Amino acid sequence: MKRLPVPDPGVPDGRSPTRYLIWTARAQWRAVLAGALLDVGWTACQALMLAAIGKAVDEGVAERDASALAAWSAVVLALGGGVAATGVLRHRTLVLGWLSAAYRTVQIVTRQAVRLGGTLPRRTAAGEVVSVGVTDVEHIGDALEILGRAVGATTAIGLVTGLMWAASPRLGLVVLIGVPVILAAAGPLLRPLREREQRHRELVGELNSRAADLVAGLRVLRGIGGEALFADRYREESQRVRRAGVAAATAASRLRGAEVLLPGLLVALVTWAGARAAASGAISVGDLVACYGYAVFLITPLKTVGEAAGTLTRGHVAAGRVVRLLRLEPEPPDTGTVVPDGPAELVDAASGLVVRPGRVTAIAASDPRDAQAIADRLGRHADGEVAYGGVPLRDVAGVRERIVVALNEDRLFSGTLRDALTPGFRPVDDAALHAALRTACAEDVAAATGLDARVAEAGREFSGGQLQRLRLARALAADPEVLVLVEPTSAVDAHTEARIADRLGAARAGRTTVVCTTSPLMLDRADHVAFVVNGAVVAEGRHRDLLLSEPRYAAAVTRGEDSP
């Protein structure tokens, strides 16, 4: 029995989805080749059986030759045995190829997840990884499995075309012209299928992420009576996924319909042409019987060719998601040796952002991913041309302690609340901790539980807003030279957000603070705002000035509402 998974899946080619699929096929070329050859034998035996039946009719039945009939019957029996033997081996080999491709992808994705470590939740949602590991590996296995069947189907079409040409060049010409016409007619149906499959896969990943969040905080939601609210939101997102699934299924059903309709039309044409040729005496009765058999037999290989187009399209979409995951790189190591003196200017060359020391600088991006990318570069969680005090960030010593990036995906570790809020690289006394809690408007949370209360893993007993305020308090308690906050108030109400915005500047006086947000409350309290479009700073100034001078900024931060 074949052992799966393989000990070493190898190094994948992640340059493109197509290259990944080709690499997967090459990595298990023996199984792919064996499956293709066995499928060729399986379909060839079926096609030759039809030719043998035609010969038996002509030479045995029509000529009343018992020995010829027995001989051709023996040939049909032998070919039937070949169909049975190759069919069993073909199925086993194709399933082996499917499993090998799926398991190989699972191994590669798992290895990449381990390699990324803490970088993974920063760069992609948990639901995305779940979707890759559950759904996309299946589509990649399907793509490898269909290759062998497509080779066999193509060979069968060519063999039947040759047999029909030998009986009647006109019939052979009908098939020779009809097959490319069928493929060309089905081609326009592939692009909508690919686009809708991609959209459906993205929404499934988002829904999986929401489900993971709900499960993690289910006890808290029940405690505060928010279970029904979040269930309604999950239901709405489920409906979005359903609609996207229906759209993808509609495109797939059109392709499947074409797989049946177009070959059916060709079969009808071949049958009509064969009957006319037999009526005119151009072909024998045995050839007519064989041609009827060929016409019916062609339905399966032609359908397989059409199925291959759809399956490979879905496999290409799935491989694209795997490739995106493989392209993620771990955070660059903190190996610098240069120590800049005092507060320093932070410059990101890619976006043109200049962060002056000692100020609260806000980054408002039309696309939140651009702000996240800048934050990653500023904290050296992603490599880039960033300078701190004129020194390349990669050469700065202790950059992760000097520049702290706080995300909403950060977790609270289990233990006491005091330990959960204390950064590992710097001791914090109670006075500093209480000051951080006040700035983050999290005093009520600490007062309700006590600093010595035990915190469950990931702080599951807290609501989303409480967790966000506690994460902000922990970041403030670290008191780094540069603090980068990514959407630090997205889960709190407007009154709490206003208090945080008012207190943040005073709490960080003399230190550099960068806030990635589109909240008008936070932007209005910032000393300086940089507006980012397509990854580059296109406008800078105070919030109220930008509202008047930059329409795109006003649209991004007010969402069509009246500006303050």
SSE inventory with pairings:
Layout: H1 17-27, H2 29-62, H3 66-116, H4 120-123, H5 126-167, H6 169-186, H7 190-216, H8 218-224, H9 227-279, H10 285-297, H11 299-326, E1 346-348, E2 353-355, E3 360-365, H12 368-378, E4 386-388, E5 391-392, H13 399-402, E6 403-406, E7 415-416, H14 417-421, H15 430-439, H16 443-449, E8 454-455, H17 464-478, E9 482-486, H18 494-507, E10 512-516, H19 520-525, E11 528-533, E12 536-541, H20 543-549, H21 551-558
Parallel strand pairs: 3-10, 3-11, 6-9, 9-10
Antiparallel strand pairs: 1-2, 1-4, 4-5, 7-8, 11-12
GO molecular function, one term: ATP hydrolysis activity
Protein name: ABC transporter
Keywords: Membrane, Transmembrane, Transmembrane helix
Please, could you describe this protein's structure?
It is a single chain. The chain starts with 16 loop residues before the first helix and ends in a 6-residue tail after the last helix. The chain folds into two domains: 17-326, ABC transporter transmembrane region fold (Up-down Bundle); 346-558, P-loop containing nucleotide triphosphate hydrolases (Rossmann fold, 3-Layer(aba) Sandwich). 66% of the residues lie in helices and 8% in strands. Helix 1 (17-27) packs across helix 11 and helix 7 packs across helix 11 (299-326). It has helices spanning 17-27, 29-62, 66-116, 120-123, 126-167, 169-186, 190-216, 218-224, 227-279, 285-297, 299-326, 368-378, 399-402, 417-421, 430-439, 443-449, 464-478, 494-507, 520-525, 543-549, 551-558, and strands at residues 346-348, 353-355, 360-365, 386-388, 391-392, 403-406, 415-416, 454-455, 482-486, 512-516, 528-533, 536-541. With 564 residues, the protein is α/β, with parallel strands linked by helices. The strands form three sheets. The protein has a six-stranded mixed β-sheet with strand order 6-9-10-3-11-12, with helices on both faces. The radius of gyration is 33 Å and the shape is elongated.
